[in-house]
Amino acid sequence: MGVTDPAGPVMDRDEVDRALARLGAEHEAIESSLLALQDHAGRRLLEGAELTGTTQERWAAAEASITLLWAYFDAYAGTLRGARQIRARRRWSSREDLVELTELLRGESVTVADSAAATANAPTLLSAGGRLSQRFTLAALVERMNELYASSLNMVVTADAVWSALPARIDLLAAELQRTRKLAHSVGVRPGEHPAGDDLERITRTLTKLREDVVRDPLAFWVPAQGSSAPGGGRPDTTVYDREARDLEDVRREIDAVLTVRQDAEQRLVKLRDLLSRADRTLAEARTARGEVLAKIAATEVPVVSGPPTVLQEQLATAAEYRRQAQWHRLSPLLESLEQKAEDELLRARESLTAVTAPLAVRAELRGRLDAYKAKVARHGLAEDPLLVERYDAARRMLWSAPCDLRVAEQAVLRYQRAAADQLGTPRVPQQGGPEDRRGE
Q1: How far is CA 182 from the centre of its chain?
Q2: Rounded distance, CA 336 to CA 167, Å?
Q3: What residues form DSSP beta bridges with 222?
């Protein structure tokens, strides 16, 4: 090769030797990297995959880059080999040899003819002006190879990272999905009959499509790391996978609830029958008590006691039928609803009994108060006092007669209390409200 315009001063023999040693080390490092890229599992998968979308476009460009990389490397190796041959001509290189070596090692001595197929797949690799060949210095060629290697490796590593992460996780989730579907089928949770069955069908379709999309276009499921320039900097996008995993877990919990119903159905049905039976007995007691109150208490309002709700008994019969037919998915929500309604019904019956028997409780309270004052008067030796005996007898006749007028009876008790207070020299009993007032309080 002739020397026309050497780049800078002519190198001496020691500089040439040091440059050749450095370039030889670079040659070995570049060759190792290219061979590692060639053998990378991700690259082999990309070569054999039916790609679509972003991955298809970027892999076409990456393949072109890898083709150019080997062309650049061959040109680099050829130039280095020529420089070593010139240096090996003589032990003490001549001036002409050093000029030629300087041109090879520092000048634009490397001419690379770009592959037409490569540049067609990756137009950005065309040289300025659309030329299909370029001249480089060895340093510039190494820099160019580093750029192409970094972009190609990033594409390969990214695709491999997605393929290594998502399909395996999807397969594990799909296996769990199949187990859940079998379990759901065993307890009657089927598509079109239960919402959880519909959810399982939807999750199945979504996971199937997700796996196909990941295999064909892995780069569509990659989230690059902000500010990272390292190959493969980022993480797989698991948004769809995570959502379906959460939905499957929700379905699994619902299936577990149905299984629990299957195991405890008889016990819960017995408990429901007991609750409704207690509510019916309480209402019956309230109706009986109402008749007693109407017969024994006068001039008071007694609330009407309603009968037991037949709808709960009908729903209980439906629940028992579901259990006999093993329709656990229908039994589960019905039992939950019935349990709450039965508790409410028992509470309503108890409140009804309390409201009905309130007048009897008032009468019992007045009787207790009258007897308590009589005992107090007796302790003070006034049991035979004519006024106290007269007022006690009047109050007692009212409280122990039927029907009893509570308002009049209470006034009689108050008159007896005031008379007793006057005889005992204690403060008078204040005026008190009637039975209705106390109940209002």
Answers
A1: 23
A2: 40
A3: 236
Token digits for 10?
Answer: 């002519």
What are the CB-based long-range contacts (under 8 Å, 24+) for 424-429? 424/376, 424/377, 424/380, 424/382
- pLDDT value at residue 49: 85
One-letter amino acid at 105 equals L
Radius of gyration from C-alpha coordinates of the chain: 50
DSSP-assigned letter for residue 233? -
How many whole angstroms separate alpha carbon 169 and alpha carbon 371?
83
The angle at the Cα of 144, spanning 140 to 148, to the nearest 5 degrees, equals: 170
pLDDT per residue as tens digits for the range 119-159: 444 444 444 445 567 888 888 899 999 999 999 999 999 99
Per-residue pLDDT tens over the stretch 256-299: 877 887 778 888 888 999 998 998 998 888 888 888 777 777 75
Q: Find tokens 């039927």 and name the residue.
A: 402
User: Is 416 exposed, middle or buried (CB count within 10 Å of its CB: 0-12, 13-18, 19+)?
Assistant: buried
The DSSP call for residue 380 is T
Pairing of strands 133-136, 222-224: unpaired
The reported pTM is 0.57
Judge whether 370 and 399 are in contact, CB under 8 Å: yes
* Enclosing H/E stretch for 223: strand 222-224
Which residues on adjacent β-strands are paired with residue 235?
223
Tokens (6 digits) for 420: 């007793």
| 3-class DSSP state of 298 | strand
What is the DSSP annotation of 102-169? HHHHHSS-EEEE--HHHHHH-GGGSPGGG-SEEEE-HHHHHHHHHHHHHHHHHHHHHHHHHHHHHHHH
Which of 143-147, 322-326, 380-384 ranks highest by mean pLDDT?
Answer: 143-147
Helices (H) and strands (E) in the chain, counts: 14, 6
CB atoms within 10 A of CB 130: 8
Average pLDDT, integer, range 365-373:
86
- Residue 68, classed as helix, strand or coil, is helix
> Using CA atoms, how far apart are residues 440 and 392, in angstroms rounded to an integer?
28
Question: How, if at all, do strands 234-236 and 222-224 pair?
Answer: antiparallel
Q: Which two tokens stand for residue 67?
A: 């083709």
